[in-house]
Amino acid sequence: MGTRTWRAGCGCLLLLALAGSFRSEDLRSCEQVGKLFQGRLVGAVRGLPESPRAGPDLQVCTSQKPTCCTRKMEERFQVAARQDMQQVLQTSSSTLKFLISRNAAAFQETLEMLIRQAENYTSILFCNTYRNMALEAASSVQEFFTDVGLYLFGADVNPEEFINRFFDNLFPLVYNHLINPGVTDSSLEYWECLRMAQRDINPFGNIPKRVMGQMGRSLLPSRTFLQALNLGIEVINTTDHLHFSKECSKALLRMQYCPHCQGLTVTKPCMGYCLNIIRGCLAHMVELNPHWHAYIRSLEELSNAMHGTYDIEHVLLNFHLLVNDAVMQARFRGQKLLEQVDKICGHPVRTPTQSPHCSFDESREKHGMKISARNEETLANRRKEFINSLLLFRTFYGGLADQLCANELAAADRLPCWNGEDLVKSYTLRVVGNGIKAQSGNPEVKVKGSDPVINQIIDKLRHVIQLLQGRSPKPNKWELLQIGSGGGMVDQVSGDCDDEDGCGGSGSGEVKRTLKVANYVEIINISPTIPPNPGFGHHRLPTPVPLPPNKSVFTLLVLGGKAQPVNTRGMPFLKQQSHQAASEQKDKGPGSRQPSSPQPKK
Asked: Rounded to two decimals, what is the model's pTM?
């Protein structure tokens, strides 16, 4: 026997002797046990024993030796043991829960700002280049981006429908102001005829189909990504409040508080003993592990696929260029469209009119809506960083029992420990593995059947995994994916132009735009705006102003596990600090990038 081994053995014997003497001294009086009981359970309880006595009425903490516990104390200790276990579970998952909920909220806020930025780009396009129709187009632009936000955040709206509706509403404006300018027809019938004729005469060429293709490849993956994050929060909330069986509750009581009845108020359970009990209590939860692992992998695959023209930043921030292309195509085919409209809708009542113009702000055109070129994170980079952090938790549920015993519950190696009956040097019974199948030989906890709550969570994980895998955009295949219940986008995308070939945008060309985000969200240098709705008596389109608080209607939207207020446009309000940051950014002056919007008419 070496000197080191001999010293270790002597140390264990000394600790056992000290623990034994401590217990013997405590058992002369139950004062220490009573104080701990009252402190742990808050408040005095009558009938606490002053000295050790026999406990024939005890059902779990049974012992041949005198005890400081009564039946009522045992019942209260059992409740405390369950509460302690739930608290340990919540503490162990707090980092993971915060990671998902924080990023879910940040991604949603960033998407909201992207939508507002894209809406402002489109509004400026009309105000600067097509001023005569800007006021009438404002409501259609607002409605389109409201629908984009509603769809992204989980509402039951059909992208195909709101994209078609936007171009249906755009054609009468283009026809009356650019193709047949200076005259109008006041009848709603003629206006509606122009709307209905749009899909037959196809004035905008393949632009509506290209918009559907780009939106289809970007909106649905982003929507599914957000929904998957919310499900992740739901899974953690469910397992944090797991219902323990009677067998598990008794085992937790025996492990945590039965030592107190023997005066062992500072003793921890042996590692093997702890593993048997916690693995038994969490056996059903461990069944989540392969599905949780697949869930994180599917999130990673979807995130990796959301790039380039499949990136929602690229699609939203270049939408106004496609709108400009559509208008230009209609103007180029003006004479032919005149003939087609005359055949379908007849000749309009020719009444000279002066269309209201929007107010043009040269400083807004000059300084405009610039995106900061600082070297900060894009949404895609933020998403990648989040996934890399999430991958560290892919085996969270599989190793949870071992983690709890090693970090929280069990005694350290070579220290005296509780084995369920007495203070010992080590646990000698068999230690079982993780999972339900391994519990058949568990000497401490009997595990029966399945847990319906866990089964329900597993079903939800399976479903969202299928969604994530089905929503990963793939070139030449994504167009076949149907969106919404009212019909899909099958065969809706023209094969004449591949977005990745760079075709998109006329004149200056389509550029790759990304909204930089710092601390998860970049604050743009223009306040969120509401373009005014067209109405009688309006003659000018006011410069967009910050959203007034008194114009909001509060509804609820689940965001990161919490209910958030949303405005009349269906999107959550930005936090106050976002508006402050926007003001600070505006004071600093414009950034170095400017959208390639067309120059105003002279």
From this structure: 0.70
